[in-house]
Amino acid sequence: MIANEPIPVYTTLAEVFGSAEASLPYAARWNDVAKEFEKRFGRKPSYIARAPGRVNLIGEHIDYALFGVLPAAVDRDILIACAPRTLLPSEHRTEAHHEPGAVVVENLHPKYTRQIFVPASKKSASIPEEEVHAEAWFLDINTKELRWESYVKAGYYGVLNQHFTGAEDLPVPVDLLVTGSVPAGSGLSSSAAMVVASTLAFLATNGKLDKKEHILTKGELVQLSMRNEKRVGVNSGGMDQAASIMSDPSSALQINFYPTLAALAVPLPTRAVFVIANSLVVSDKVSSAKRCYNLRVVETLVAARILANSLGLTIGEKEKVTLREVVGLYQGETEGQDMGPVALEKTLSELLNSDKLDILKAFGQQGCDLGVTMEAMIKMSGLSKAIFDEVYLSWVEIEATHFQLYKRVKHVFSEALRVLSFQNVCLQGLAGDEAESLTRLGELMNESQESCSQLFECSCPELDELTRLAREAGAVGSRLTGAGWGGCTVSLVPEGQVDAFVRKVKETYGPYKSLEGQALNEVIFATKPGRGACVYKL
Ligand code: NG1
Q1: Strand, helix or coil for residue 76
Q2: Which family does the record claim for this protein (predicted)?
Q3: I want to staple 13 with a disulfide (CB 3.0 to 4.6 A). Which of 23, 230, 448, 513 is the partner?
């Protein structure tokens, strides 16, 4: 089981990349960040934490409904060179960065300026009243606007609160230098890569990866990083952290979240090449969360309750039941049990092809284009307004006049089915005919794009256009990847046709016309599954 494997801590780059030869193209970048760390902080780094971005092949916006997804790590990543500083006795701590747990973080990219922050312990007077809760440590994270250091702080949060609960046990001050090659806001999950790398950097510098009595597993790091990332203000599912941590270069990763986190390597057809193309529309998930990402999380959760009620299932008043759990209860699955892919496929198809989802449409309305109002939604949920607010709105800010419950569930169920079909084609092949397999995988990707665009409304005109141009340029399938509303597309192109495909897209997609050379190569490139996160001990 991948989730039970330990977090790899390597001592050579050859181990990081599988062989000395494979490490060659990357060595200069790793050396540069180590040298630059020494120049800026006056000593060598003790560790370099690495976490990759990911491309999601199929299964969009269904991880937080607890359905399985199929991403793969890419070779673009975040590196954090880091070293602890000695914690001076209190009388010698003259500046903020001498305090226990103080962090000085710099970024090789000049756009991201140097930040210094000090975590406050619960007893400290500087913590705002409303933030004094069960946790031992507090870090001030701005959840209203996108700030680069928020992701560093998010990674630190869980490490502090999980590992430094005793009064005697204090975190060391740490210096960090970050460099990233995952384009930000592009749907390749630079955010999760930052959070995972940051979590690893703080664990390593505080000696928490060397503990003999408890070796941190990949599954535990996924759970910790998932909780950490939510601190930034986006109620994300666990796909990105799982892909960043558990990926393997030989295959894509089927990640299941229910009943527990589990990952399975899924080999891809040998002639399948996945090409990533950036729409050049930046998707700022934090600033748009209340109208986009977080709104979708709330819509799918409320829809799950309404559907459960209409199917006669019993759901506790304060339970935030997910769509996957509702499907399980409907099928007769008991707690902790997994009905398996065959039964899941059958149950999802039955629900989609029946009129059972009609309950989610607006009352007395023929079409469902308008969606339901907040008032109607509360009534449909069967909860009082007070309980509804507590369960569905107290932890998140959303902004909408109408809620599209029917369309969202149609997308989630059909997308979950497409993930199962995609895996089947990869695992079994279509009677050994690779061309036929590629065609089928491409169709599933195209259907996914249509569903994201029309039902989940997480595409945008540029993504629709870029996927269309990709199909015209020879892709057998093309879709947005990641949260959407901008960012990248992923296209499936048969091996041997990639160069012609890339050339054609470069010529036809409007926003690429002003780019040339390396800048153009940066926005469209072929990718293959990459390695998961690790720590390099220098
Ligand atoms: P990206 O593309 O990294 O923003 C987001 C979520 C995922 C998943 C996808 C949509 C985060 C960190 N990740 O991915 O969990 O829900 O959207 O499938 O928010």
Answers
A1: strand
A2: Belongs to the GHMP kinase family. GalK subfamily.
A3: 23
Which of 57, 58, 63, 297 to probe ligand 1 with, by most ligand atoms within 8 A of CB? 63
Q: How many domains does the chain have?
A: 2
Residues 298 and 242 in one domain: no
302 Cα to the center of ligand 1, angstroms: 20
HEC string of 240-282?
HHHHHHHCECCEEEEEECCCCCEEEEECCCCCEEEEEEECCCC
Q: Considering the candidates 75, 77, 175, 240, report the single residue annotated as catalytic.
A: 240
Residue of the CA atom closest to atom 3 of ligand 1: 189
Q: How confident is the model at residue 128 (pLDDT cuts 50, 70, 90)?
A: low
User: Could you tell me the two tokens for 320?
Assistant: 């935030």
Asked, for residue 165, whether it belongs to a domain, the answer is yes
Q: Which residues line ligand 1 (CB under 6 A)?
A: 56, 60-61, 63-64, 187, 189, 191-192, 229, 234, 236-237, 239-240, 285, 482-483
Instruction: Give the residue whose CA is nearest to atom 11 of ligand 1.
Output: 236
Average pLDDT (223-230) is 91
pLDDT band at 132 (very low <50, low <70, confident <90, very high): very low
Please say if the pLDDT value at position 431 is more than 80. no
The answer to whether the beta carbons of residues 165 and 136 sit under 8 Å apart is yes
336 to 141, 332, 413, 481: CA distances (angstroms): 35, 12, 21, 30
Is 75 labeled as catalytic in the residue annotation? no
Please give the structure tokens belonging to residue 49.
Answer: 């934490």
Do 241 and 343 sit in the same domain of this protein? no
State pLDDT tens for residues 162-198. 999 866 778 999 999 999 999 887 889 999 999 999 9
Domain containing 160 equals 2-56+76-247
Distance 237 CA to ligand 1 centre (A): 7
421 vs 367 pLDDT, higher one: 421
